[in-house]
Automatic annotation (TrEMBL):
Residues 92-108 have a biased composition (Acidic residues). It is found in: Chromosome, Telomere; Nucleus. Component of the EKC/KEOPS complex that is required for the formation of a threonylcarbamoyl group on adenosine at position 37 (t(6)A37) in tRNAs that read codons beginning with adenine. The complex is probably involved in the transfer of the threonylcarbamoyl moiety of threonylcarbamoyl-AMP (TC-AMP) to the N6 group of A37. GON7 likely plays a supporting role to the catalytic subunit KAE1 in the complex. The EKC/KEOPS complex also promotes both telomere uncapping and telomere elongation. The complex is required for efficient recruitment of transcriptional coactivators. It holds the Pfam family Gon7. Signal peptide: none annotated. Keywords: Activator, Chromosome, Nucleus, Telomere, Transcription, Transcription regulation, tRNA processing. GO terms for biological process: tRNA processing. Residues 67-76 have a biased composition (Basic and acidic residues). Residues 67-108 are annotated as: Disordered. Component of the EKC/KEOPS complex composed of at least BUD32, CGI121, GON7, KAE1 and PCC1; the whole complex dimerizes. It comes from the Eukaryota. This is EKC/KEOPS complex subunit GON7.
Length: 108
């Protein structure tokens, strides 16, 4: 008498969640193919899908967080906490210098 064979398929997901007391929460849940049982083709397909899912998640996260930052700025401005036009100039300057160390110029 032969023994029955059992095949187990595991599901893998790339999941991210964001929650804030001031903004709406969001979640990203991307299903990925099974990495397989050692077959190089399965592993390659899994890694390609993972790479795509991570890039897509990063783009979605950036879009969502930027929208929430804009909501926060609008809420602060409506509450009188905004710094006016000078704040947008500073935002532009900060964006141009993002990731760089900037030396402030001294006034005489």
């Amino acid at each position: 008498m032969s023994q029955p064979t059992t095949t187990t398929t595991t599901t893998t997901n790339l999941t991210t969640k964001y929650a804030s007391p001031a903004n709406a929460a969001f979640a990203i849940d991307t299903p990925l193919p099974s990495p397989g049982d050692g077959n190089v083709g399965d592993k390659t397909a899994y890694l390609a899908a993972l790479r795509t899912a991570v890039a897509d998640a990063q783009a979605t996260i950036n879009k969502e967080l930027t929208a929430r930052m804009d909501e926060d700025k609008a809420r602060d401005a409506a509450a009188g906490g905004g710094a006016g036009p000078a704040a947008s100039v500073d935002d532009v300057k900060e964006e141009e210098n993002y990731g760089e160390e900037v030396q402030e110029e001294e006034e005489d």
